[in-house]
Automatic annotation (TrEMBL), chains A, B, C, D:
Its cofactor is Zn(2+). GO terms for molecular function: alcohol dehydrogenase (NAD+) activity; zinc ion binding. GO terms for cellular component: cytoplasm. The lineage of its organism: Bacteria, Pseudomonadati, Bacteroidota, Flavobacteriia, Flavobacteriales. Residues 10-332 form the Enoyl reductase (ER) domain. SUPFAM superfamilies: GroES-like, NAD(P)-binding Rossmann-fold domains. This is Zinc-type alcohol dehydrogenase.
Amino acid sequence: MKAAVIEKAGGDFIIKEVDKPSPSKNEVLIKVEACGICHSDNFVKEGGFPGLEYPRIPGHEVVGIVEEVGENVSNWEKGQRVGVGWHGGHCFECDPCRRGDFINCENGKVSGIHYDGGYAEYMTAPKEAIANIPEEISSADAAPLLCAGITVYNALRNSGIRAGDVVAVQGIGGLGHLAIQYAAKMGMRTVAVSHSNDKQELAKKLGAHHFINTGEKDGAEELQKLGGAKLILATAPHSDAITSVVDGLGIDGKLLMVAATGEPIEVSPMQLLMGRKSAAGWPSGTAMDSEDTLKFSAMTDTKPMIEEFPLDKVNEAFKKMMDNKARFRVVLKP
Amino acid sequence: MKAAVIEKAGGDFIIKEVDKPSPSKNEVLIKVEACGICHSDNFVKEGGFPGLEYPRIPGHEVVGIVEEVGENVSNWEKGQRVGVGWHGGHCFECDPCRRGDFINCENGKVSGIHYDGGYAEYMTAPKEAIANIPEEISSADAAPLLCAGITVYNALRNSGIRAGDVVAVQGIGGLGHLAIQYAAKMGMRTVAVSHSNDKQELAKKLGAHHFINTGEKDGAEELQKLGGAKLILATAPHSDAITSVVDGLGIDGKLLMVAATGEPIEVSPMQLLMGRKSAAGWPSGTAMDSEDTLKFSAMTDTKPMIEEFPLDKVNEAFKKMMDNKARFRVVLKP
Amino acid sequence: MKAAVIEKAGGDFIIKEVDKPSPSKNEVLIKVEACGICHSDNFVKEGGFPGLEYPRIPGHEVVGIVEEVGENVSNWEKGQRVGVGWHGGHCFECDPCRRGDFINCENGKVSGIHYDGGYAEYMTAPKEAIANIPEEISSADAAPLLCAGITVYNALRNSGIRAGDVVAVQGIGGLGHLAIQYAAKMGMRTVAVSHSNDKQELAKKLGAHHFINTGEKDGAEELQKLGGAKLILATAPHSDAITSVVDGLGIDGKLLMVAATGEPIEVSPMQLLMGRKSAAGWPSGTAMDSEDTLKFSAMTDTKPMIEEFPLDKVNEAFKKMMDNKARFRVVLKP
Amino acid sequence: MKAAVIEKAGGDFIIKEVDKPSPSKNEVLIKVEACGICHSDNFVKEGGFPGLEYPRIPGHEVVGIVEEVGENVSNWEKGQRVGVGWHGGHCFECDPCRRGDFINCENGKVSGIHYDGGYAEYMTAPKEAIANIPEEISSADAAPLLCAGITVYNALRNSGIRAGDVVAVQGIGGLGHLAIQYAAKMGMRTVAVSHSNDKQELAKKLGAHHFINTGEKDGAEELQKLGGAKLILATAPHSDAITSVVDGLGIDGKLLMVAATGEPIEVSPMQLLMGRKSAAGWPSGTAMDSEDTLKFSAMTDTKPMIEEFPLDKVNEAFKKMMDNKARFRVVLKP
Ligand SMILES: [Zn+2]
Ligand SMILES: [Zn+2]
Ligand SMILES: [Zn+2]
Ligand SMILES: [Zn+2]
Ligand SMILES: [Zn+2]
Ligand SMILES: [Zn+2]
Ligand SMILES: [Zn+2]
Ligand SMILES: [Zn+2]
């Protein structure tokens, strides 16, 4: 089969023929129909993720058709359309797994990092990492929902906010443009926060009730004019920008960070203590969370904005994503 | 009446005769029996708190007997033993007040800062700032519970932790020595965290199940050996020390800060995202929270460790507190 | 001024001239623009509510213009458009009030029951019972939102359900037709439950994703086919009908009852234990909750379906409501 | 090996030699040291539980030593002391399992009902049903904690109550005598509710702060005198008695039922609506919950009161339990 392979840290994608994988007894073999490109795939391209080995085929936003199942797999069958996201499997035996908290599995696997992913014609994945895809959504549209989508949907629905609350989405990109739609469709008073006016019109179209341009005005002050945010969903990995809006939180406000960066934000006890505020993080979700995300997206007609590329053009597609020029998610089709 | 007055920012306490106050129509006049000295009283001594004017009599951990009530006061009567804490009154008309969230009143008053407090023979306070004191607790023991006690009791009971969870109390001082007792009596697996072994024996006596000396060992690592803390209650205003234990949080762990300092802590989105962690602040409580604190303290026989001083020795007493030599709260008796 | 007065239990409304009221020092005088008729107004017509005295002017869904304020009222001013709902005032001094839980005030007043309400040209109300009305909503549309609307909006947003969850609204009447709209606009998978097909088309138009006719099919079974309801909002006061859908709850499902009836439902420990289910009640809300309801309604363009009547036709209007023939709320205009 | 077998519904226990079981690949073989007798074992004795087949060896409160593990078992090893409770295994593949909600598995097994249990010298159990037993607790003491203990501990810690709240334990029996201890050790103001004074002294010794004899006084009224219960934990399966205390709930009070009976309680919407009350059920817990229960019990020195019988005397032991004469749990030792 054809695949886009990273052979060593720092290398380009090489399109080549590799062996079509076979599912082991707890695995499912998927014929890939679409695979989103995610910024986290750069962990494979540039190296450094714990447990990563080369050569590696990346891809953790995968939608395709079940082609074959391992002997222990009884809940998936040939012909189903399914997806695989960031959470690529868990051990069932560690303490978090025994509590049912699979996302925090001590031996968890990431698809496309700990095993080969969806930048290929086929991939295998453990049965527990598989999600069903509703008919209403095309494979290309579904793919980014399995990482970008689930992350913000899951963060929002588990944040404790109530319908009508002021929710600010910081950053209008791959995650942010979905978060704005979800927040609006959850009945939140949705505020798009960006550093220029370029995306103002788009933000309104996606459902934002308000728009704040932090290039012109102080983001925290503007949020306070709206009563203070009950939730600021920080979708862009820029810790300085995040730090700058903490004071835009209202009473009981929560800063919820979904963009994985190790660069610290700064916040004082006093800032959080006055008004009982908090800062928290949220990590994607499991296959069931993916199914919930997709069902909600189908019900509310939420779609990612995507640009499609054939697998052969993976280097070009990847560069566009890294250059932050894609509007907003890039999807490969094998 | 006799009072300890700060006449200007930076000045010492001056013991002098001042006019005994009269309650206005919504106020209660209290004959002071005991008043705790709190580190926050230094805001009065050194100046800088918004809305503070001189001369001022500090004191927001006040217990005494109702001597007289204003004409609109029907729920308090002469002879009752009552207390006043940090939260010194609210407006009932701002939006937080209309939501019943008095602690976040936009026009809230702090006793001993926005009006004269308990370093005196008498003080007045708005009726909504008054708490009933249960018989089982002496006035001197009750006083520090109205600020140090309520802050940690209220933070702990509202933190969402469940009995049996690992709770670390960082800092064994005025707040911490109470937090250890409360946490243990709430059925938490209580871990005292200190920077030396000096207070190890005491911590165990107060109910701590474990003790971590961060002077010898890495606090975060030691907490992880216990499974990770579900809650770290940071009671000392040292942001570096707080930053250093963030990685001691377990899954769904929360860093809860009650010590008011403007010095930022540093924490990365990644640190919080992995394991769904959070950092939050908690501000004392209302008069009803004080009553809950006192009832719980009476029921569980929780007492502050105090050193009593006559009002005349306020300068000596205050210095001992500021030098961090008191074990652990200083209480003035007029 | 003209008013519709009930002079004794069981009597009809009598349209007559009465003295225009004057606001006492904590009250606001309102020139009524619209007043909804609520089933609970029948407590006045037929008698029996604790604390009710005659003659009485009912009406607790009142919108009008501030005409005059009492001397202690600083947060409302002449000319503002405001509303008064079921919660007609609280004492600020009982324990629930001291906790900020005004709705559970031990001395709470109901507008139009404990004092004269909005079936008149003017009414007075305590300042704490007043809500601001956003410009986007007409007075006639706003009126029913102050009781029917707030009750279901507040119940839904505080129920702990998450966007995408299956929410069944039982009963499509004054409360139900609003609940369907709110649930849909909060991103819930909304199921309308009715005992005939008459309102099926309407329910879909209001936003329902599914419709169950319990006249034809077993409601509980149909809900289980949808995965089981996370929430069943019981809006009609028919305890048998409520009892019959309890088994339609899914895992962690909650039956939430907002229709005040003293007739018991039946539910066994086993029914609730399997799947960790619960049954709960929810009582309307405060003036701030009214403001939240109205803001959300304005933001999402949620409107009650109303039939307007002049105050003079109150007897005809009231009968239509009691006969369950109104679609769906009746609003009086003086 | 020796076992106590029920050969048909309604039969007595027959002590006989049966084949020692062998663990299948996902199972663990346990040499039984102690097995509690639970009222639910009567489902086996009298028949009627879905999926039950004869002959059957009951017993779901089992503590013993791992003797052998199946080939797929890597997290348990020979020589460990372990336990098995009511929750006897789950499928990992149904939707609740995929959400990590094992207790609601659609294919869940109950130990001693769907497969042979601990009234024997040996038993096997699926690896996911196994809990580790802390050294501090004897096998006989640990056994009842795996069903009676976990049920009330888990119900209490997940109920949302806060330390200091009024918690009533209705029924002082196998579950209730543990619930009183746990509630007190969680810092709850603990009220024992019984229908006679027989157990008053005992209740106080177990930690109850208050005692209500519903044979002499109205339980609901007495609870209201204490401020109203935030939680009533109904541990005895008597629906009339449960119904009678609903009005003892305070604001936001919750009636939590853990005793499995199909006999309905009666409660009106009005009863729950006033004060935002609720009625809910709670089902035992998983192996991890068992571990939490045991750790908490060890930490707080909570022990069941037990009467030990040799396996040979199972009929006598069982009768004592059924006659409600045991104080309070009966434990068999093979
Ligand atoms: Zn991704
Ligand atoms: Zn795991
Ligand atoms: Zn203080
Ligand atoms: Zn205020
Ligand atoms: Zn009404
Ligand atoms: Zn009140
Ligand atoms: Zn049992
Ligand atoms: Zn299952």
